Amino acid sequence: MAFVHGKGTAVSIDDNDMSPYTNNVAFNRSADSHDVTTFGRNSKRYQSGLKDGTATVSGVYDNTAMTGPGAVFRPLVGGAEVELVYEPEGSGTGRPVATVNVIVTAYNETSPVADMVTWEATLQFSGDIADTVGGA
């Protein structure tokens, strides 16, 4: 087993590389569970259901006109599905790649008086996650 440092993580949204502006990604997979307990049981029984997921992407704000987080995420809030590509080990041959369509449900900027402006985008998965490995 080899531990992986997060500094190499790569993330893109709608074909825009957000890695230079991002310092945290939370990629959350989940699934429904349905209670199928019947009479006579001493413990609950469950059946798995539909898969779901969300992601939160955040970082330090950059006012770069065409590629910064504000320019990319603001127009996507509440819009059509776009593609999210998440590479937790960074880009490269044989490294894991998760690709999923998402709806951007929120984009927030925080401006503390004694620190840098930060941003955060909340993404709702829409459809299956394609888990692959990076190519050459």
Structure annotation, total helices: 1
Q: Domains counted in the coordinates: how many?
A: 1
Compressed to H and E, one letter per element, the order equals EEEEHEEEE
- The low-confidence parts are none
Report the count of strand segments. Answer: 8
Determine the structural class based on helices, strands and strand pairing. mainly beta
User: What is the helical fraction, as a range of percent?
Assistant: under 10%
Please tag this protein with its features.
136 residues, mainly beta, Pnp Oxidase, Chain A, eight-stranded antiparallel beta sheet
Task: Walk me through the structure.
- With 136 residues, the chain is mainly beta.
- The chain has one domain: Pnp Oxidase, Chain A (Roll).
- The protein is 4% helix and 50% strand.
- It has one helix and eight strands.
- The protein has one helix at residues 69-73; strands at 10-13, 16-17, 22-35, 46-60, 82-87, 96-110, 118-125, 130-133.
- Strands 1, 2, 3, 4, 5, 6, 7 and 8 form an eight-stranded antiparallel sheet that branches.
- A hairpin with a 2-residue loop joins strand 1 and strand 2.
- The chain is globular and about 65 Å long.
- The protein starts with 9 loop residues before the first strand and ends with a strand.
